Amino acid sequence: DSFDILGDGVKELLVGRDDGMIEIYNFESADDPVLRHDYALSESIASIQGGCVGKDGYDEILASTYSGWLTGLTTEPVHREGGSGEELKLSQEMQSKISSLRNELEQLQIKVLHEREKYQQSSQSSTAVSSVPAFSVNDKFTLNKDDASYSLILEVQTAIDNVLVQSDVPLDLLDVDKNSAVVSFSSCDSE
């Protein structure tokens, strides 16, 4: 997307990458764009948009991820400083908003507990049927020309516990910065 997120009168280029990076490029001169800010998410970005969404007067970048999460980056200051001895005073509107969110959170927690109990009861029943749900897998296997390696990227809309890679030829697994996996090797019986 292109949007004036920096407020300098010139639109910046907002880029959402499939490796989870959000980048803001500025065109300060007629030459190449300059990377001004970046932010890393843990999954690939499906779309990105700039605009004023949450609070009037503060622009934001909204990004939706592969699994459906919506993430917002705002220009609104997160912290406000008060003078010495000043107490933080919330407006009546803000207090009612906080109260409403707390009530909604309590209701959701009660609903989750109820559904967990319902699931536990149904799974222990003699008539329970177990099935593996179908998941859409976002996978990429790309060649990195610089070091002659391949990158395997897997994304699923749920937690990934294990990934098994089996090969007929010897493999060297390389660790990368964004990898949170624990790699273990085992030899395979040729039979």
UniProtKB/TrEMBL annotation:
* Top-level taxon of origin: Eukaryota
Does Coiled coil count among this protein's keywords? yes
Any idea where the BBS7 GAE domain is? 133-190
Q: Which intervals hold domain BBS7 beta-propeller? A: 1-75
| Keywords of this entry | Coiled coil
Its cellular-component GO annotations read: axoneme; BBSome; ciliary basal body; membrane; neuron projection
Question: Coiled-coil stretches, from where to where?
Answer: 91-118
Keyword Amino-acid biosynthesis belongs to the record = no
Example of a GO biological process term: cilium assembly
Name this protein carries in UniProt: BBS7 protein
GN (gene name): Bbs7
